[in-house]
Structures are given as structure tokens and as C-alpha cells.
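Support reply, case 0932

Customer input (verbatim):
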Amino acid sequence: MSGTAEEAREVRALGPEGVSTVVLARLARLAGGAPEMARAVALLGEGARADVAAVLAGLDPAAADEAVEALCRADVLTRDGERLGFAHPIVLAAISGDLPARARQQGHERAALLLAEAGAAAEEVGSQLLHVAPSGNAWAVERLRDAAARATGLGDPDAAIAFLERALAEPAGELHAPLLMELARAAARSGRPEAPDHFRAAMRAATGPLDRARAAVGLARTLKFRGEAVEAVHVLRTARAELGDADPAVADELEVELLSCAYVGLDSRLIILDEIAAMPPPPPGPAGTVFDRFRLVSAGFEEVVKCRSADRAADFATRTLEGADDLPRDVAQGGHVFLTGAVCLFFARALRRGGGRLRGPHGRRSAARLGSRLRGRRRRCGRSCTGAWATSPTPRPRPAPRWRCGTRCAAPRRTSRVP
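Our regenerated output:
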């Protein structure tokens, strides 16, 4: 077919089933190993390697070349160097759909073995195994895990999730717990809502406190940025108590995740005020570890929250970010140290411009609420009515608001309360 408008009308009139019938009839008329070659390419998919397709079809190189030439002349295949494809997706669907289910599955399994022997990319091997039924094959689990790692490295967490879910269906044996952890991390990178459930499954499957602590870190990160920072605090505290001194590096990671909850929500900040107060002072020199960087940025943020020294806050934040090229930027992967440092710098400048107070486009009080809310201090009038949250001092005295109970309270009236 030459692709004219008249031919396009004929194809539309035939419909998919009619086109499939025509394609299969044309394929059956071809001599030699052309039908076997077409089926092999259908199993391998678009961009199939000609040498691997020839082995899969059971043809020698000369016969395979003749078959490819015949298929190209018949407008079934297209060739680009050593890669083969189909003239149209409907042709691929017709040939693949004509294969019996058992033959198709066996063909994909053999294709995966041939691709692995030929040194094909991990994702090519894994893509074949996605079409093979689980059978407890340890080799398939390893290849699918390699394919997931490759997809993750290429920035495709959705493909990694497909490979890992298929690997877990084998079943995976002793690799079950590590695969669950990798699946949870891929789901978190992809922003899947089921990521916390995967982390919880990884914690249940973990064989010791160290693996559970690592899964707890991932679970806490997903919870914090779903607005569930209070639950993240409980998860991290439990993991920290169970881990003890077994691994100082992971213990520091748990501590960073726990203390960072103070900067993602007021509710979570209120329940870890003791941990914030007990945090060691920031190091005097450059930060050597992620925990050192967090101590610096936390000290800077506290300077901003309490409207103290803009210069000290900026210094702490700048030292946090110096030489931090290796810090992750993605908040789901521990990027809150970098993000908090950048936010601290922003508010340090605002504090400097405000002459020691946080100012905003709607006046001093509206901007100062950041500090008052994060400080977490409340004053109550002492009666049955609900108290108000404290704010920063205002430049002029204002009359104290009258509560519904009739008592004047020293705390400024707020139109909304923070829980």
C-alpha cells in the first residue's frame, strides 16, 4: 500500500479484524522462514535486534536475511540498521494475537534468555519477563530487579514499579523484604498514594531493627508530605528506640527526619519541642555530615522563628548549603535539609528588611504569625473560654480584646485558631 486517501478509506472500511485477516493471509503466502521471523519480531517487540530474532525464529543468518527482505517487501516489517519494527501497530497486534497463549508465554521466556545472553539492556530482558507467568524462578527475580534498578536510574519509577511488582509475584524468597523496600521507594518517587502502605509492608517484612529503621525513614518522609507529620513522629520515635546504638549513621538519619518534622507542621512541632531543645549546638566550623548540616539549618530557623538575629540565621543557612552539591533536592528522598536551608535564607532576608520583625504585604502582624505559630506558645485567659496564640510584639500598644466571657486577655485576638 502506498498510503493514499483511497487506501485509507479501504482500511477504515475493513476495521481492525479485517486488517488482521488480510495481514495474516499475506504472511501465510510468504515462503521460507518469513512467518517464523515475523512471529519472533512480534515477541521481541518494536526495535527488535535482527540477530536475536533470527535465533528465536530458529533461522540461520542467511535465511533470516531473506525472510526480513520478504517481510519488508510485503509491508509487514521495517528495518533500521540491525533493528526491526512493524509497518503499523495493527500489524504487530495481528501477528501477536494469532499466537496461542502458551506459545506466546514460552516465546517471551526464551526471548528473555536470548537477550540476556546477547548482553541486551536490563530493561529489554525485564520487559520480556513481564509477559511470563510466575514460576518461582530466581533468575527471573534477579533480572527483574536489575531492570527496576536501570529504570530508576533513567528516572522512570513507574517502569521500576512494574518490574518490582512482577518480581514479587515469583515469589522472591529471601529477596522479598529488599524488593518490598525498593518498591516502596519507587512508589514514593512516583508520588503513588500507596507508597506508605508499601513502606509499612517493608517494615513488617524486615528481618531486624536496622532494616525496619531504614523503612521507617522512608515511611516518615511520605507521611510528612501528605500532611501526616504527627504520625511520622511516632513512627520515627519507635524506630529510634528499637535501633538504639546499632548503627550510628542510620540513627542520625532517624534523628534528622524526626527533628525536621518541626518545620513541616505546627502539630508535629508541638510534640517534639523537647527534642528540639535537647539538640546539640551547631558545629563551629563547616558541616561534615548531614546531621551537622541539619543542626546548622535548625539553629538558623530558630533564629528566624524567634525573630532574633537575621545575620546569625543567614550565616547558619549559608554554612548549611556550602559544599552541599551531594544533598538531595527531592523532599521525598531527604531533601528537606536543602529546602529548609533555602527557606531559612529567604526568611533571614525578610527579618533583616523588617528590622528584627517578620513583615509581610499585609502588615507586621500577618507576617509575624509565622514566628508565633512555630514557637508553639499559648496564653489562656484562665477561664472556661479558649485562649489565643501569642504573636510577636507590635510597635504600638493595642487595646486587649474582650472575650465572650467578658474578660480582657493579654493575648491578641485571633480570627482563627491553630489546633
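We compared this against your earlier run and they match. Two observations from our side: Confidence is low (pLDDT under 50) at residues 361-368, 373-419. The CA atoms of residues 20 and 94 lie 5 Å apart. Please reopen the case if you see a mismatch on your end.
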